[in-house]
Every structure is written in structure tokens, then in C-alpha cells.
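Why do we care about 3D structure at all? Because function follows from shape, and shape follows, mostly, from sequence. That is the central idea of this module. The next example makes it concrete: a single protein chain, its amino acid sequence, and then its structure expressed as C-alpha cells.
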Amino acid sequence: MKLIELVVLVVHVIMALAIIATILLQSGRVAGLSGLVSGGAEQIFGKRKGMDEALARYTIVVAVIFGATSVILSRYHV
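And the structure:
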């Protein structure tokens, strides 16, 4: 295994874990039963939009890097 292939593989694994983490950290549109309870509170106190927007942007960046490393790794293994 070449050094560059190893580096890309390590980055790929890190991005895979990062994309899982960023998706799980985002709040869903429908929060289920907890959404019924806290729904009124969100209308009064407001929702944490800054954190959700930052996570959404970070998820996009991580997904693009993950896709790029996938393409690079597929070229090495042909």
C-alpha cells in the first residue's frame, strides 16, 4: 500500500465517522413525543438555529470530502 493511499484511507475513515456524528447531532424536524412537550417552549424561547445551521454546513463539507476520498480510493483499487 502506497503512502498516499494510506493517507487517503485514514482521511476517508475519519470523514465517515464525522458524517455519522454530524447527522446524529442535528435536531430532526419532528422530534416525536419530546417535540410535543417542548414545542410550546420553542415558540416562546426560540430554537437554537445557529447550532443547527453550523451543523448543516459542516455536514455538507464532510460529505463532499467523504465523496472525494471515495472517488480517489476507487481509482487506486481498479
